[in-house]
Amino acid sequence: MPTVAIHPKASISDGMGHIYRQINLANELKKQGWEISFYIPTFVPAIDLLAQAGFPPVITEPKSPIAEYFDKFFDFVILDIQDTTESLVCSVKKCTRWIASFEDLGIGRNHVDILIDSNLAPSETKNLPSSTRGLFGTDYSVLNPDFSYYHTRSRHFGTSLQSVLISMGATDPKNLALPLTRFLLQEKHDLKLTVLIGHNATVIPELSKLSAQFKSLNVLGPISNMAQTLWEHDAVICSGGVTLHEAIAVGTPAFAVNQLEHQQTKAQFVENSGAAINLGLGNQYDAEKLRKALNFRKPKLESMSLQAKQLIDGRGIFRVIDTMGKLMKI
């Protein structure tokens, strides 16, 4: 039985995208007979989520080297912490045959065996050392397998937007969901609006008041059917993280309000591809641009949906696992 240790980051500021991504990967690896071990920092929503998924984690201290927590030699270690150092990767190498790292822009990226980054162009693999296999581009976006199913389903839009989903990530570190909800309720009284609050409980009281006031508003906590939920809405307002790629995979036009500076690059790339609208960063987002997007008609929505599906097919998770298997010759 192959063994893998997975070390993602998770916090209020980092969000939960790294955790969700690695749970998706772990579930598929488990189906193929892998033994999974998670190592994460103390962050209660992440710990609870892993426990619910059947992967009770080992809790690590942020200042302690991750390799100190490994109690055996692994076939693979997966790092989803970004910006690794050479010393960190070298210490991990003593505990594993191979290392895979996600979206790693640190010096350590040059010392791993597989580097996965769906935000970089495939041509950029030429900058990697020959010992590192680069899996770059949207073909390697690791999403729940449900997204590959909804990717194949046809989309049908009305003459104008009928429904919008607001999902600013599991933690919404910039607290954008509430002001965006108020903006949409003011701009579009007849719009069916769904807001996902994830694990950010601070906005629940105000959103509950709005939900009682506006029958068109539906407020939901953490959900397990994100692919279906995105597919059922005409558009989504989200940040430029994992949710943006999820929306693209199912062909849901996305209006991106970015939570972090590096998300701007991803959102702009998707806008240039015709699959999304990049509204800018945080509370300084372009309200007029959003107002125009809310008035998009059927031809524009259909065009964005088709362009989106050309970028991501939802099968990146299988491509990554296939590469891991070939490296191990299984």
Number of strands: 13
Largest sheet, strands/sense/barrel? 7 strands, parallel
Strand content: 15-25%
What is the tally of helical segments?
Answer: 12
Task: Please state the average pLDDT score.
Answer: 94
CATH C-level category of the largest domain:
Alpha Beta
Uncertain ranges: none
Order of secondary-structure elements = EHEHEEHEEEHEHEHEHEHEHEHHH
Task: Write up what this structure looks like.
The chain has 330 residues and is α/β, with parallel strands linked by helices. The chain has 2 domains: 3-142 and 315-328, Glycogen Phosphorylase B (Rossmann fold); 147-311, 3-Layer(aba) Sandwich (Rossmann fold), CATH 3.40.50. It is built from 12 helices and 13 strands. The chain has a 7-stranded parallel beta sheet, sandwiched between helices. Strands 10-9-8-11-12-13 form a 6-stranded parallel beta sheet, with helices on both faces. Strand 4 (74-80), helix 3 and strand 5 form a beta-alpha-beta unit. Helix 8 (242-250) packs across helix 11 (298-311).
Précis, in short:
InterPro entries: Glyco_trans_28_C. This protein has helices at residues 17-31, 44-52, 86-93, 146-151, 177-187, 204-213, 226-231, 242-250, 261-272, 287-293, 298-311, 316-328; strands at residues 3-8, 35-41, 58-60, 74-80, 96-102, 114-117, 133-136, 163-167, 192-196, 217-220, 235-238, 254-258, 276-281. With 330 residues, the protein is an alpha/beta fold.
